[in-house]
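Weekly sync, protein design subgroup
Attendees: M.S., D.O., the rotation student, P.L. (late)

Item 1: inverse folding check
M.S. brought a backbone from last month's batch and wanted to see whether the design step gives back something sensible before we order anything. D.O. pointed out we never logged the input encoding, so this time it goes straight into the notes. Structure tokens as presented (290 positions):
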């Protein structure tokens, strides 16, 4: 079920002005993409890190080496050397360790689906993503298309969300949570296998074909309590030959989930600084919720 454009705008205003209002009502509208966050301070976390979660999901398509996707061979041609989930997991994590240092930037297209169990409804968003590593951390930008277009930028510890329909920017400083935020982002931003195991309990689920590519399906359980309070499980689909996350899924305790799929990724190419600046005008209003 979709709301009209006017209803979408009213929803956006109400969520930004009163983030706790949603907690006291049952809505037939799927949750907005920045509605869940894994850190302290209810108002701060539900606004800021859900937006960062979206950035993270998009960043999961990052590849460190631009090799051709590995082909899925017929069963009769596949290697028959016995393996175990533990040995497969060690091999996948070792490949991540080898290539983690090579990541500089990524840009491409995304499709992001949010499922709400209460209404059995799915909301889909599409757009363009940009990521780069800098000396000071991570920069990320999102161009979200659709009837309520948005531009999202995370840079220098500050999150900005520009809602073009209402010509308004909502701005938050990450502050003391910067290291946690960027560690969370690094899950899809060149994190090594060792870093993955540091922050998550990692299990090898199976090998699964995605877009014609053989991927390792990994189940993650957050070790940090703040993350675990929001997401009880995360699934990654990794092409270990290129160290690329083709898909990523976040599950909440309520049964809601968010699924990301990435295509047309360009790796380690220069991204212009202008991508990480909001395209506002002289009449744009800026709000800084407390």
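Designed sequence read out in the meeting:
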């Amino acid at each position: 079920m979709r709301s009209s454009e006017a209803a979408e705008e009213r929803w956006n205003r109400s969520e930004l002005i009163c983030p706790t209002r949603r907690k006291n009502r049952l809505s037939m509208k799927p949750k907005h993409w920045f509605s869940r966050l894994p850190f302290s301070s209810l108002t701060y976390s539900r606004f800021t890190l859900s937006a960062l979660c979206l950035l993270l999901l998009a960043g999961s398509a990052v590849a460190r080496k631009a090799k051709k996707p590995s082909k899925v061979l017929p069963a009769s041609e596949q290697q028959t050397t016995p393996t175990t989930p533990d040995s497969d997991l060690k091999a996948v994590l070792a490949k991540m360790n080898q290539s983690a240092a090579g990541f500089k930037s990524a840009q491409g297209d995304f499709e992001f689906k949010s499922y709400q169990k209460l209404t059995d409804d799915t909301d889909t968003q599409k757009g363009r993503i940009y990521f780069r590593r800098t000396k000071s951390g991570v920069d990320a930008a999102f161009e979200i298309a659709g009837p309520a277009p948005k531009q999202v930028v995370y840079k220098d510890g500050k999150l900005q969300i520009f809602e073009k329909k209402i010509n308004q920017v909502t701005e938050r400083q990450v502050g003391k949570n910067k290291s946690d935020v960027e560690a969370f982002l690094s899950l899809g931003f060149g994190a090594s296998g060792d870093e993955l195991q540091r922050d998550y309990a990692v299990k090898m689920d199976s090998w699964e074909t995605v877009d014609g590519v053989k991927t390792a399906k990994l189940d993650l359980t957050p070790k940090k309590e703040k993350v675990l309070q929001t997401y009880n499980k995360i699934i990654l689909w990794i092409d270990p030959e290129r160290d690329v996350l083709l898909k990523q899924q976040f599950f909440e305790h309520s049964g809601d989930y968010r699924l990301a799929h990435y295509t047309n990724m360009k790796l380690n190419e220069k991204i212009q600084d202008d991508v990480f600046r909001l395209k506002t005008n002289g009449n744009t209003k800026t709000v800084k919720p407390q």
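Discussion: DSSP finds six helices and twelve strands in the chain. The two ends are 32 Å apart (CA to CA).
Action: P.L. to compare against the previous round before Friday.
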